[in-house]
Amino acid sequence: MIWLMVTWYVTVQVVALAVLPLTLRVMRALPDRGYSLAKISGILLTGVVFWLAVSYGLLRNERGGAWVALMIVAATSWLVGYGNIGVWWRSLRGTGGWRAVITTEVIFALAFVGWALVRAHDPAANHTEQPMDLMFMNSIWSSPTFPPQDAWLAGYGISYYYLGYWLLTTLGRLAGTTPNLAYNLGQAVWYGYLWLGCFAVVMNLLAWRFSREASAASAERVIYRIPGWGLAGGVLGGVAVALIGNLQGIIEWLYAQGVDVGALAAWTNVRNFPQNASQTGQWFISYDWWWWRSSRIIGDTDIAGNYIELIDEFPMFSYLLGDNHPHVMAMPVVLLVVGLALNLFLLFTQRQFQALPSEEPQEKIKWLPLDAWDAAVYLIALGSLVFLNTWDYPPYWLLMVAVVLIGLAGAWGRAFLIGGGLFLGTVLLYLPYFLTAQSQAGGIIPNVFYPTRLTQFWVMFGTFLPALIGLSLLGWRLIRPSRSDLIRVTVLVLGVPLSFLLLATLLSTTEWGQVQLSRLEELPDGMSYTSFIIDRWLGSPWTFLFVGALLSVITSSLFAILKMPMATWRGWADVVFVLMLAAVGLLMVFAPEIIFLRDYFGTRMNTIFKFYYQGWLLFGLASAYLITIVVRHLPKRFALIEGLTLVSLVLIAGALLFPIAGIYSRTNGFQRDILTFDATAYAKQSAPDVMAAVEWVQLNTTPNEVILEGVGNSYRADTNRISTMTGRPTLLGWDGHESQWRGEAYREMAAGRAEAIETIYRRGPVEEITNTLATWDIDYVFVGPAEIERYGITSGRLEELGAALDTVFERGQVRIFRRRES
Predict the structure, then answer these.
(1) What are phi and psi of 815, to 5 degrees?
(2) How far, in Å, are 349, 439, 522, 796 from residue 573 at the CA level?
């Protein structure tokens, strides 16, 4: 284990070193010149170059190909950015740069080693959707050509945003580690990346601010320094985003200690609490899955009053659960994009302003202060979000356009031309993905039935909301938008969505509107949609009004900035950027009050899940920034802004109960006897015969050969183990998930497959078995405990299969049959 950890740590450092010169060149406006983001940049650039080369047939999908891709990136980086190494090296002395470098390395090492140890105590990929993640990794690992084959739907490529899995396997190839080990080691690396991204954004914002304050006090040209307060704020950014839980964790802990929280529970109305909770009196609450409830705070109800489950995950919950899903894999790259947006914003403030007395005039720019290499990195990073987790692309595209718009002093036309160029560039760069991608998305639905309870919204985001209110007041105090600006923005933010919902309500009186709404909810006899909608919204309008009002205040400050010369606000550009982060985050949590995406589930589940996740990330960054400033200046003043911000600090401290108790619970008190990073080790103990078959398949079959298994059951790790653990395609795996990934096209793609499997396992005579195998190009037939259970396979049926095929593997209940040569 120690050797594996050292190997992965060294590999991460080599990848970071490869792109360091280019990172220092591109992120030259950041006080640390992007050093803290080099590790994330390294794996993204290497992975994308490797993927493009494999997709176009220029490199093979193997370890040598991964190293060639890394060498291409390294050669380009050092040729283009070599001169920046010396500049950066000289800047380390006397500016706190060395402290930033050391802190960066310590943060990554602690996060990586710490989470690796957690995963070693809980390594099994055997619950929820972990087998799906492992299947994708093995499919990508074993696919000789691209797009990578879908091991659960033979003959088709993966139809999912799979770049995160590709990056994981790329790092695994570089480290010489197979997917069963890369699953857990990669997750530990990604947790380190997540911490670095949070640290980088907040630390650079604060270092810029404190450097400006010092230069203003001495009337000297700005020399960017990284003070201890900047480092502390960066660490707080990691705590706020990557470590804490929501307020439900505090409530759970209080109840476990015997505190009467009945009134609070009734007020928040979180499902199954406290009915399914226990008063254990233990500091870690219990060894069961009590922490799961924190991800199901928000709940909708249908017309009949039945509960509709929604998902409101946050990063620490995701890591406790252990799924390597796209939203987890995308987070570090999202933070890289935020860092690039900050870098671009600071480049604008350095170039596009009327000179202050102590500074030389600068020539104003009309487009972007970037050259071709800069633009390439920006396009790769921002565009990759479509491929990593498509939901993340719109908010950060919007953030980048907002940076350009303010940087170009309100040049709307040029800003959206640049935004359009970014989108077009994304499509062209990631074209191999777009050519095969499918989606279950079926349009936008107005949210007329499900306003969010404000109490539940506060349980979810209450750690950050006081600081966000304080931030809005700070922006108002510094910028002082006019009354007309506030009215116009409020009409836009609240009035337009309200008009949209009113129109949808009016349409509910028409026959067409009733037909559309009936697809979501069937009305009981005697009830009208219109009266139901009105009752729902009059009963719970407060989240819509609260978030909308907060968004209006912050956005009006940003609109006022567009009318001001940059020289007047350049000294607090950091506040402007944080206001942009807060505005985008608020927009993410405001949107589900108005609309949601029509998908496989037919509810707000995915919309809340994906949008709230980004809201959490942006709120955490903004809160850490403001808390650090307030604590730094607290001896000098104390007012409403400071008071609100300190409330958030106290709540963040309390929310640390969630990871402390949750990790101890999840690892069963760190009592595991044998530690391992192998995600499949559990099956080697519980199903040794099946795992022996897995090993045989890996050694004796080629990646393209189809190995038939029974149709899988979603969320059951004991089904489809051959395809999951080898990447060899089977005819039909978790069919419920396949339909989610592919939408309407899935019905035609899967037609006849389930029937063919029935024919082979259950009822077909020898001749029909042979014909079915040939029709579907099936090379092997696997029979294990799951197939025996599902299809009622008897010893007589095994004899029939043996008569039609050759037996090539037999152990216990497990058989593998090979199709005979015709």
Answers:
(1) -135, 145
(2) 8, 40, 52, 77
